[in-house]
# Entry
Amino acid sequence: MSAILGISANYHDSAAALVIDGQLIAAMQEERFSRIKNDPALPLAAARACLAQAKVDPRALDEVVFYENPYGKLERVLLSMLRTFPRSLRQFPRALASQLGGKLWVLDALSSGLGVPRERVTHREHHASHAASAYFASPFERAAILTVDAVGEDTSTALWLGEGRTLTCKERIAFPHSLGLLYSALTAYLGFEVNEGEYKVMGLAAFGQPKFRAEFEKLVRLQSDGGFTLGLEYFDSHTNTEVGFSKTLEALLGPRRMPGTPWKLDGAEIPAADQRAADVAATLQAVLEDALLGLARRARAVTGVDALCLAGGVGLNAVANARLFREAGFTEFFVQPAAGDAGGALGAALLAAAEKSEPRTKFTHAAWGTGVSGATAQSIAEGLGLKTRRVDSVLDATAERLLRGEVVAWVQGRFEWGPRALGQRSLLSLPTPLAVKERLNRVIKRREPFRPFAPMVLTPRAGELFGAFAPRLATFMTTVAEVKPEARAKLEAVTHVDGTARLQTVEPDTLVGQLLERIGRETGTPVLLNTSLNGQGEPIVATEADALAFFLAHPVDGLIIDDVQIDR
Amino acid sequence: MARLFLARLMKPFRWRNPRSTARMLLDFAKAERSSFYDMMEAANATGDLKRKAQYVSHAVDEARHAKMFTLRALELDPSRAADPSLFHADFEHLFTRLGEAKFISFVHLGEKRGRTQMAMFRDELQALEGTKRADTRTKALLDAVMRDEMSHESYSLVLSKELGGSLVGARAWELKRGWLRAGALITGLIYTLLMSVLYLLLFPLALLEKMKAKGAG
# Structure
C-alpha cells in the first residue's frame, strides 16, 4: 500500500490531494477552509481534511510531494532580476523576502506542519505536475499533453507524451514567453484582478469583435511551428507584479481600464470605452485560441496520437477548449476541472503514484471534498433562529421550489474539486425567464451584469438542446457549446450573448441527474441554471456553517443541505 | 489602549476631507473583514453546535459591516474603487493559534476596543453637526454598526467566562503580538535597505547575465 499526499502552494490556489494505492481519495483547495478566495497559503487545513477523509495518520504517509521545485523557482527569480537590472530595484527586496522568507523552505514547512519526516517530503517539476494531473486523471493510455500557464520553474508551455505510466517531455517554451502572462497582463489592463478575473475577460470577449489584430501581432508573434514569442517591451512582470504590463502596452492599446469602473454593454448606446474593452478582450480571446490551436497541431504532429490532454491555468478557458475540440484534429480531449495551479497537487500525487507503478485512478466525478450532515445543519440553523424541516424526499422538496421559480441554494455530498460548482455546492433555478439572470447577477452574486450563467443538462438529452461539444469536458464544465436556435427561448437565462453556453452534462444516476429528470418531466426541458454557491469575492462554500452564513447574507429563496430544508 | 491614545492624538486631522474619512472607513472595513475570517474559522472548528451558530451570526455581521464601511468609503472617495487591496484582509488563524477560550477572550477585547473607537468618532461627528464638516451619514453608519458591536462584546464576555478564558491572558498575548509587529516593521525596513544595497552590488553579475542572454538571443 502507498499513501501519497500532493501539495500545491505559495502562488495562488493552494491545494492538497491524497492518493492511496494509485486511487484518488480526496482533493481540496485551501480556500474552502480559510474562506480566502484563491488562497496561496500552505494548505495544511486542506491536507488534514484529505487525511481525515481517508482516516490516515500523517505519519503513515509514504510521500508528501510538492508540485514544483522551489530551488529552480528561486534561480529563475534571481536571473529575472539580473536580466531586468536596474528596473527591478523595487521588486528585488520583496521578491527575495518572499523566496527566502518562506517559499524556499516549503518542503521543511510541510514536514513540520504535517508531522512527516523531512526525507519523505519531495518535489516534482511544475509542468510535470500539471501534465500528470491531466493525463493520469484521463482515461487515455496514450495522449499528447499540453501544459500552458504563466510560468513554472522556468517553463511557460510544454508538450508531453503520456504512455501508460510514463510522461515524456517533448518540447518546451521558456519564460518570459508565456500565454498565461499575456492573458494575466491583459486581464489587469481591462481592470480585473489577476488570477481571478480571467473568466470575466472570457465572458466579456463575446461582446466585442477582434478589432485589434494588428496591435496584438506586436504583443505576441505566432510561429508556423506552433511556437510563439511575446513582445517583451509590452510586459513588465518582473518589475510590476500588480499589473504585469508596461506603459508601452497602454501606448499601443490605449489607456487601461481602472478597476471598479461600472460596465454598460447593453442598450442602444454602449460607451466607447466599454466597447473598446470588449474588443480588446475579443482580440485576446481570438489570439489565444490561435496560439493554442498552433500548439495543439504541433502536439499532434510530434506525437501522432489521437487524444489530447490540456492542463495549466489556460486550460480553464472553456471557449478556447471548444475551438481546440473542433479544429485541432484530435478525436479525444480531456481537461480535469482544477486545470490551474490547484491541479498541481493532484498531478504531483498521481505522478509519484505512477512512479511506484500503482494502478491508474478513475476520475469520473469532481466530488473529492468534505461532506455535510443534515443533522449538523439543522442544529446550527435552529441556533440562528431559522425555520428548518427534515424532508422525506430532497428531490421532491427541491423540484417543487424550483418549479415555483425560486432560487435555491443546494448543498449535497462532498464539495467539488476545482473552481466550478458541479452540483454539490450550487445555486439552482430554472433556465428561464431572463429575469432570473438579472436577479442572480445584480442582487445575489453582485457581479458584472455581462457575466453569463451556466446550464446543467441531463446527458442523454444534451444533443437536443446544444450543438456538438467535447463530452469529457462537458462533465466538468470546461467547454462551451452552441445553444440550438430553437432551444434559446427555453434557455434564455443560460444563453450567452454569442449564443453559446458553458454547459455541464449530468448522468441520470446521480442525485442532480434525478433532479434534472424530475424538472424535465414537468417542463419538458431537463436543464437547470447552475452557478456556484458563493458570495462576491468569496470561495465556494464548503461546510454547513459556510452555507448558512451565505444564506443569511444573500436573498435566495431557500437552502437545502442534505435532507434539511431551511427557510427564513 | 495605545491605538485609542493615537486616535485621540489624531483628532485635529480627522474629518477634514472625504478622502481621509474614506481611508479611515476602509481601515474599519479591513478589520471587520479580518474578523469575518476568524469567526468563520471558529464556526467551522468548534465542536459545540450552539457556539457554531453564535460564531456564524457574528461572522455574518462582520461581513455586513465590512460591506457598509466599504460602500460609504467609495461614496466619499470613488477613486478608491481602483485600489487592488480594497477587499484584502489579514487572516491570522486566531482560533487555531489561541484555542477557543483565549480566542473568545481576545474577540471580546477587540470588540470592546473597536466599539470604543467608533463611539469616539461618532461623538466627534455629533459635535460637527451643523458645521461645514458635518457628515450625518457616516455618523448614522457608525450608530448602526455600534449596536451590533455591543451585542458581540456582551456575548463574547459571557462565553469567555463560560469557557474559562482569561482577559488578562488575551491582553498579554495582544501586547506580545504588538511588540512582534513593531519589531517586524523595523527589521523589514532595515532588510529593504540592505537588500537594495545588495541589489546595486550585483551590477557586475547583471551585466554578465545580460551579455549571456544577448549572446543566446
